[in-house]
Amino acid sequence: MAGRGAEQHPHGADRLCAAGDRVYSRAVRRGRVPRTDAETVPCLLELALLHPDPDDMDWLVPTSPQEVMTRLLRGVYDEVSESQRRVGSAVAAFEWYAGLGRQLGALAAPAEGSAIRVLDGLSRIQAAMDEATEACTTEVLTVQPGGIRREAELTEGLHRALALRGRGVRMRDLYTHVARHGQGLLNYLELMGDTVEARTLDEVIDRLILFDRTVAFIPANADRTMALELRHPALVEYLLTVFERLWRLAIPLTAPLPDTGIEGISHREQSIAALLAEGHQDAVIAERLGISVRTCRAHIARLSETLGAASRTQLGVRIAQVGLDRQRGPALPAGALTASDQESPSVR
């Protein structure tokens, strides 16, 4: 349906079709419209005139006319020969929408809309990421969950990483320990040189990308086809604190993982044992550690054999007896997690 709607409403980014004009005008007057109202006018979402309501994804809220006008004019300046005609058209159209908004006060808080923005669709997410990359001047922090990174994932964002490296931007990346075994990641880090510092943990939070401590991106659904762009200072500061505390617990990629102190038990098996002791199922453990369920069960079988356990119940008892129910993370100095330590250390 979306494809047919797009073909029925062909127009440039400097104007709206009649159907789109009616839906957008109604959204500005009322503050939001049902998502179904925009099904026949996909141009409103494609031009980012409407976007999902963070509080209810079944509704769409209008982008402020002032912000919309700025977006429309951005493309106008790429074609100097037609700039005067197109600027005049865009200004005239959106002065009318701004007037509608002022009448009912529907857009009385534009700062809130820009502080949390829902990005619906991979193309919209990529465009926002590219925009943030272009504006970044100092630092990028990322958390990359899952296991071994596929070549396609690494290649997808390579152009952004190379652009950042060219401007001297420093990057710090957090991965799971499993990612150490991926040759693609090792090749990527070798290519980036000392621009990127990587550390690993048994498990990390969901994907997070922070640019210059001012804008953050996090997933908004399970399949990551939607994302949130966060610019609210309190939210960004909170995510920054989470990253810094995980970073202090993490182990540099160039350093070996600590020995478990128990013969025949690997570091990964120790992590699995600790999660088993907490009562987690195989699938949950596999997801948190970034491994497959099959690999997880193979490690559990080796644990049972090494500890002499004939059943899951007996395995739980043996795990507690040898102390594997406690994660042996790196020791932290006193006061390592205080607020005064939230400033990031220099990047290698």
UniProtKB/TrEMBL annotation:
<feature type="domain" description="HTH luxR-type">
    <location>
        <begin position="258"/>
        <end position="323"/>
    </location>
</feature>
<protein>
    <submittedName>
        <fullName>LuxR family transcriptional regulator</fullName>
    </submittedName>
</protein>
<dbReference type="InterPro" id="IPR051797">
    <property type="entry name" value="TrmB-like"/>
</dbReference>
<dbReference type="Pfam" id="PF00196">
    <property type="entry name" value="GerE"/>
</dbReference>
<dbReference type="InterPro" id="IPR000792">
    <property type="entry name" value="Tscrpt_reg_LuxR_C"/>
</dbReference>
<dbReference type="InterPro" id="IPR036388">
    <property type="entry name" value="WH-like_DNA-bd_sf"/>
</dbReference>
<dbReference type="InterPro" id="IPR016032">
    <property type="entry name" value="Sig_transdc_resp-reg_C-effctor"/>
</dbReference>
<dbReference type="GO" id="GO:0003677">
    <property type="term" value="F:DNA binding"/>
</dbReference>
<dbReference type="GO" id="GO:0006355">
    <property type="term" value="P:regulation of DNA-templated transcription"/>
</dbReference>
